[in-house]
Fold this protein.
Amino acid sequence: MGRKPCCNKEEVRRGAWTVEEDRLLAESVATHGEAKWRTLPLNAGLRRCGKSCRLRWFNYLKPGIKRGNISVEEEDLIVELHNKFGNKWSLIANNLPGRTGNEIKNHWNTTIKRKLLNDGSKLNIMRKIKRSSPTTVNSSDDLLTKVSEKENSTDHSIWATLLQDLDLEPENQMTSGETSSTASNAESQRTSSPATNNDSFLYDIDVIWDDHHIGNSTFYSKTDDDCEDNLEWFNWFNFNGVSK
DNA sequence: AATAGAGTCAACCGCATTACA
DNA sequence: TTGTAATGCGGTTGACTCTAT
């Protein structure tokens, strides 16, 4: 026996909401509050599923919801929070006033993810690693040399060695045999680390970036093959629990 | 001007979690 | 303590819009 359906699909309306439906929903929430979604449609005179009403309210009608383009600052924050929380959209949304989890999820899947993949040079990946790492780099020149040496390598194990060279905590790296709870421990260790370490690491990379003019123009993916390669690296780093 | 493909986003679906009798 | 209902959430879909040809 399967789960009891939340509503009778034959009797409820589906698809885009009309202005009149929005008005009825808003009035009903104003009167009864944000609760009893199951019975709300009946009380409001709406031929809608309760879940649909709840979604419409929290994603669109609720006062204070920001509409329009997501700013660069917000985007940076989303990337940072996604590094920290993963696909926990509601958690991420809690840190962006006026934005909904659904909106952030959509933006991530349509815009940010594409940017990361298209702009996913190995050095950019290093930038992503350092955002989530509490470690510092011993020397900027040292890092540049190591990145340059390995830039053309197709051997992933060499990059793993580089991560060790960069003083990444062993706990940060999850081997294929480890469980996600191990990764969670590493996560909590990272997030509890002093911000100054992150700042130092960030500064080091930015200095290299500026001084040596290694930017998008050099490493930007120009072909589908490049994108495939970048995606491969991106996935590999994610798999090893480094850039998450 | 027509059209195909890409991008965007609101809404749906079903599983997970929480509340409560 | 347990079973059921209600709610929350993330993944996915599909309609609509935009852009390139």
